[in-house]
Each structure stands twice: as C-alpha cells, then as structure tokens.
Amino acid sequence: MRAGERLPELRIPVTRTLIVAGAIASRDYQDVHHDPELAGRKGAPDVFMNILTTNGLVGRYITDHFGPTAILRRVAIRLGAPNYPGDTMVLTGSVEEVDGDTAVVRVLGANGLGAHVTGTVTVTVPVTNPEAAS
Predict the structure, then answer these.
(1) For all residues of the chain together, what is the average pLDDT?
(2) Is the Cβ–Cβ distance between 50 and 25 less than 8 Å?
(3) 133 pLDDT exceeds 80?
(4) Cβ–Cβ contacts within 10 Å for residue 18, how many?
(5) Parallel, antiparallel, or unpaired for β 6-13 and 102-111?
(6) Residues 129 and 42: beta-carbon distance below 8 Å
(7) Which residues contact 24 (CB under 8 A, 6 or more apart)?
(8) Closest Cα partner for 50 from 86, 22, 78, 73?
(9) Confidence band of 127 (pLDDT split at 50, 70, 90)
(10) Which residues 6+ apart lie within 8 Å of 37 measured at CB?
C-alpha cells in the first residue's frame, strides 16, 4: 500500500433487485427505493439506490482490494447523480496517503449520469507477518 496507488475498477450493474434488496436490508422503506409508480409521482423516472446500499458497496470495494483483514475506520461519502436500474456504477479509487498500516483512499462511483458517489475511506490493513513488511 503506497500513496498514488490506483485500485482496479469495480463495475456494478445497477438492477432493480439490487436497489430493492439494499433498501430492505438497510430497513429503508421509503417508496422511492421500491415503488416505481410512487417514485415517478415524486419526480424520479424510476426507483433509485439509497445511500446505505451505496455505502455498503463502497466498503465492499475497499475490502475486496485490501483483503479480509482490512478494517474500515472511516467512510465519508457524498451522493450525487442517482443510481437507476439499468445503469452500471463504476467504482475507482486511489490511495491518497499512508501512515503505517492505515491508508486514506479517495473513491469515485460514476454512472451514466455522472458521479453517483464521491468520498474517502480510511482503512487499516494489519500486518500479519512483521518480517514481510520490512
């Protein structure tokens, strides 16, 4: 892990099932996350992903890259363009700074409308073999 390191992109198909399942799993029963007709009445063209699902996907992106020992210390994200069914969110990231076994990673999740999520994740990756770190 070093400053400037780029993480490989992760492409996530945004399906209606993913949106609804994420809302249910996070106990977010707002109609805009599961009912297309009611979402339309509120001005959205379809249901859209909630922030808790996005937060979970950002966390997955980081732990997929840094491995099963990675510990998310802080996730600070901001939503932008909605994630609607039929689109693809592409997560990318780069390590901004490293302090020992902890790094700050800048993350971007973009879709066909633009930036869906931006932010930083602070992650610690404990060294399991101190001699290998030397």
Answers:
(1) 95
(2) no
(3) no
(4) 17
(5) unpaired
(6) no
(7) 34
(8) 22
(9) confident
(10) none
Q: What angle do CA 38, 27, 14 make, to 5 degrees?
A: 65
pLDDT digits (tens, 9 = 90+) for 35-85: 999 999 999 999 999 999 999 999 999 999 999 999 999 999 999 999 999
* Sheet strand arrangement including 88-99: 6-13, 88-99, 102-111, 114-124, 71-79
Burial class (CB in 10 A: 0-12, 13-18, 19+), 105: buried
| pLDDT tens-digit series, residues 11-31 | 999 999 999 999 999 999 999
Residue 21: closest CA among 40, 47, 60, 45: 47
pTM, 2 dp: 0.91
- Total residue count of the chain as it appears in this document: 134
Per residue, the 3-state secondary structure of the chain, as one string, reads: CCCCCEEEEEEEECCHHHHHHHHHHCCCCCHHHCCHHHHHHCCCCCCCCCHHHHHHHHHHHHHHHHCCCCEEEEEEEEECCCCCCCCEEEEEEEEEEEECCEEEEEEEEEECCEEEEEEEEEEECCCCCHHHHC
Work out the end-to-end distance of the chain between its first and last CA atoms, rounded to an integer number of angstroms.
13
